[in-house]
Amino acid sequence: MAVPSHTPAPQGELQRGLSNRHIQLIAIGGAIGTGLFMGSGKTISLAGPSILFVYAIIGFMIFFVLRAMGELLLSNLNYKSFADFATDLLGPMAGFFVGWSYWFTWVVIGVADVIAITNYVHFWWPDLPAWIPAIALIVALLLLNLPSVKNFGEIEFWFAMIKIVAIIALIIVGIGMVVVGFTSPEGHQAQVSNIWNDGGLFPFGVTGFLAGFQLALFAFLGAELVGTAAAETKDPTKTLPRAINAVPIRIILFYVLTIAVILMVTPWRSIPSDQSPFVEMFTLAGLGVAASVVNFVVLTSATSSANSGVFSTSRMLYGLAEEGSAPKSFGKLSSAGVPRNALFLTAVLMLFGLVLLYSGESAMAAFELVTTVAAVLAIFNWSMMVIAYLVYRKKFPERHAASLYKVPGGVASMYLVLVFFAAMLVLLASFEDTRNALFAMPLWFIILGIGWFAVRNSPTRIAGYKRFKEDMQREVNL
Q1: Fold of 20-448
Q2: Extents of the domains making up the chain
Q3: What is the C-alpha separation between 149 and 340, in angstroms, rounded?
Q4: pLDDT in tens, 410-452
Q5: Which of 60, 146, 234, 279 would suit a FRET pair with 45, their CA atoms being 20 to 30 Å apart?
């Protein structure tokens, strides 16, 4: 039965409560994450000014992934997420692995956000116990997400708006400081040549340039969130293409141009690797009040990322429970159409960030650990999207021919992306900071394999898969 956009979805189904303005800002919010605000300082210390090329290259590849995801989601409006088209196109085992891996990705991102938020709060209150902001964050996220998906969309809209205004303001202020030749109390003069006058664009050579990819990749996690929200979007045929097509402009604005301005104002060697360069730019310039304002912005950004993670994990776990790949309790919805039990589980798991912080690791060391795990999981998820697209092209050539939103470059661009992801895994294995976390990741897939063999023949999962295949065949009119 079709679900009209002007009426609520039936009881027991996810609600299509996100409008165009919600989905556009969710897409932007996903493109501006904790990895940019918290992790770019470390990336600059590894790559120097070549970080600009690092972000541009990764963004170029992610755009192709999002275009593939967009074409697939619009090829069958019964797909609620990319786990659905993985199940439909690659089989139930692939869907099981993708669904659980994406869920775990956002749990790990949530842990990273908890670590980042405690670090930001310590900018104002350095002696505050880490558990206080962590608990406050988790309680706030539950209160924000329990009412309805529209409430999530509204909150994320304003979170994203804060980030957009702040970044645009930072660009304007930074360019103004360059124009007037602002000199910090330490004697650093703001000038365009700061980008290249200390060792050139590649001060650490090819090795440093490649090292920049390991943490920069994490900054793009969440770009695919627009696809996860597709099931609760009123008009995906219009909103998804608009959001995805704007990705290149957002990457240039929010990553390349913003970091370039920071490097103009603050010589890159003066940026601490364990702090946010957004805050440090104003701190080093002697603008303490502005630094506090920017710290508030990056704090809201991390909260926004955690908010998106709670949303994503709860919806993915709900879908897994519906098909019998997760306990039934996670497939229950509240009267407002929210998977409440799945929300609670994510909130509890995010507390693992405190375990890392109290284990003796510094905030940045803990952050690097979890971001490497999240990056490996993201590479797996994105690669599965690309593989699903290649299968879709062979299995449903008539759908591709009829598609109004085709992937640029077609199959060739998809193979280029897969080669790039393979190279990223090689890089992660080449550096000590990321090697240990990478080599531990097979354990996750072993656990998934055991889980799959435990549930694959269960009556609940078989019945769930049968319902899934029937749903994939029904016609949807929005």
Answers
A1: Amino acid/polyamine transporter I (1.20.1740)
A2: 20-448
A3: 11
A4: 999 999 999 999 999 998 888 877 888 888 889 999 999 999 9
A5: 60
